[in-house]
Amino acid sequence: MRVLVLGGTTEASELTRLLAADPRFEVTLSLAGRTSSPKTQPVPTRIGGFGGSDGLVAWLKQNATEVVIDATHPYADQISSNVVAACARLAIPLASIVRPAWEPQPGDSWLPVASAEAAADALGPNPRRVFLTLGRLELGAFARRPHHHYIARTIDPPGDVALPPDIKLLSGRGPFDLQAETTLLKQVKVDVLVSKNSGGTATYAKIEAARHLGIPVVMIGRPLKLRGHAVENAEAAMIWLEQGLAHRTTSCSARGV
Predict the structure, then answer these.
(1) Bridge partners, residue 97, by sequence
(2) How far apart are CA 36 and CA 39, in angstroms?
(3) How far lies 256's CA from each of 107, 246, 249, 250, 251, in Å?
């Protein structure tokens, strides 16, 4: 079975590892290319966009793709819209790994907002030390509020993104543990943390650290993200794929193929 996995997440890495060990599947992993040095994966990998839903349809046809798994980030709403449209046009089965969102726990102080721009506005008029744990492309939204001191952690340098004037850049790739996150927040004397509600465990330690230190969190809500058949993790995606494979085998046997 030829499978396209749209990746860039922990779940995508886990899924490709499982699929690479199973000879029943021929897998291609597709990454958006936002990270300059992605982790090496055990399956053939393509990097870059498809050119919208039309480009994705053409790629799926050209590669005789039989099933697609959307394991993109919860905030990657555009590619998810494209893949839903493309799979519907070609009648290709689609499953989407839907990572559960974080929920506030006792001791959390969250201010929910809808976007990075709204997060910048929510920081208020008084100067604060702000820890930004966002992708590099979102950092430019905080240039509109230049009176704060920002500390931003990204995987790659921000490139040509217009940054706030008072910002310190830290390089790091998760997962991070609670002790390391607590130590960092203390060292840089953070007043407030800005985060996306990514869900999962890979980056949750920063939320726990903020809770333990009494640091408020400006939490950027998730966009509306179209999806196929919802599964929660890589293991559930494998079960779904195996069920599809078994159904195809049964159908072929019934037809005498």
Answers:
(1) 231
(2) 10
(3) 62, 15, 11, 10, 9
